[in-house]
Amino acid sequence: MTGIVSRINTAVAQSFIGKWFMLEGSSHPRPRAGTTFSTELRAGFATFVTMAYIISVNSLIISDTGGTCVCDFDPLDPTKGGAAIGTTAGGGSAPAAGAGDMIAYCSTNHEYTSCIDIVRKDLIVATAAMACIASTAIGIFSNLPLGMAPGMGINAYFTYTVVGKFGSGKISYRVALAAVFIEGLVFLVLSILGLRQWLARSIPRNIKVATGVGIGLYLCFIGMQSSAGIGLIRSDPATLVGLGGCNNEYLDASGACLAGRMESPRTWMGVLGLFIISILVLYKVKGAILIGILFVAIVSWFRGTSVTYFPNDPMGDSRFSYFKQVVSFHTIQKTWAVMDFQLNTGEFWLALITFLYVDILDTTGTMFSMAQFAGFMDPKTGDFEGSTPAFITDALCVSLGAVFGTSDVTAFVESGAGITEGGRTGLTAVTTGVCFFISLFFSPIFSAIPPWATGPALIFVGSLMTKSVTEINFNYIGDSIPAFLTLAMMPLTYNIAYGLLGGLLAAVVINGTVYIIEKLSGGRLVPPNKNEKDPVMPFRMGPQGEGVLPPWLVRLIRKLKGQDPLEHAEHGTGARRTSEETLPAPSAPASPKLDDKKDKIEMDKFIPDQFAENPTHLTAASSGVEPSTSRRMSHSHHRNSISSDRRGEL
């Protein structure tokens, strides 16, 4: 068997495929050491297994917007969920029904919920299709082992903040998709001009970290609710939220539990799912999140139980009828090309700006971190191989995702699972894309995954994202307060944009005041511990614009000067040397072991390693990519490093 695999690897390496993907043994002048066809296939499948949960989770979250479905709710008509307009005991007029009444009415409207079921099936296809297209494209055009799909976190912001549950927000689903579409076009321009790195570096480091933590808490909050989670928390008229876990018969009109808290079998099934995922990750079982989701889902597929997703009612019968088809290709009916370009509202532009900011941190940070992990970073340029085509591909896929009806497409940190298995070329991403293509024909299975099966995944992913809180500089108030407001306001206001704006505003006001006082006092009035403040990262540019200008422009400048256009560029000598030093030898195990603490991974989506003066190494985690608690870098060492660099520049 080994001989057959070896012959296949050799044949592929010597073909045009091997040359295109720079496999070892190919005719490419700069092959990537230790890469084989079989290893890339295995790595691509590992990435798919750890990413596959997004198919059901993303469709469940975004379908909460209601999509293009229309509910006949009328706030002034009591027969359509509204409130009767009359006179109160005090002589005033009774208020009309609000968003909560609309959600309660529409959730019991059979025609509307049936339409949402179709939207969810559409989004299952849209999610799988975009994961297929984006992963394959980034593999072919940038030759990077990255899996891409509609991203977590940004989909929750899209649904619950921008559009609102069942369209109760300030802009509609159609207009929100238009914002995503335009965002992709803006990203395309920024990618061509090489400005994405500049924008990412302009944000204070602590707010970048807090953004990831805040989104993690936001995802956990969603996963604990009933609409897209396990129902552990419910609304409470006195404390806003309270302990839930009760059956539907104990809910009042506002969704609060009147009795029977923590007695719902579905809630306990979700808790069991979280326990299973945690134990599997603890023992480093690949695909732990997917296994946990499938376990809870399969148990919920049996009819006649207290946790069934197919109750004996018209809605349950409709779901079960579609589920029994098993293999079926669902044609998108309600989410294809439905953008509405109403650009005359402030909410539209706020959503667009927030999409831009969060996606810059998310996608750019993930790509740089994964490039560092795989050994593609060039220390002389601070860039990685294939960065420009990767960013352009991402931008185009963001706009294409809006056409399909889903939120921003982004690179996934779960790509680290494939890199752990030895994936170092675009063949890994192409394999992941092929797996997502196959999943398109199993939409009846993915549409039957209930929210209490995906809720544990949201809680678990949220816990991983909060680990980077240890990177916040709590020693200096000018850094800690803006970061704390950022991470606290996101879940508490149910709005990522408010958290970002609050943190940035606090940073400007606090640090701006300190700066003014220092200048007015001639430098005599300064905080006693100002030396503990995180420094602003300096911009450095090489003689041909390396580190600032986009790689394609650097190559053009070098060519015009009669120099080697590939040196220190996207596929330059510096990048090759870094890769060769980092990649394992062909006879070595696939998993890289780059520091003394094994089986951990340095991962910070929101602080790309090229932004740090002393980037740490990365190792592997078994079920995706997990932030390491051991990555803390001394703030004083960080400041001294930059200070010495500045003295050297002077």
UniProtKB/TrEMBL annotation:
One of its GO terms (cellular component) is endomembrane system. GO terms for biological process: adenine transport; guanine transport. It is found in: Endomembrane system. Keywords: Membrane, Transmembrane, Transmembrane helix, Transport. It comes from the Eukaryota. Residues 564-650 are annotated as: Disordered. It is a multi-pass membrane protein. The keyword rRNA-binding does not apply. This is Xanthine/uracil permease.
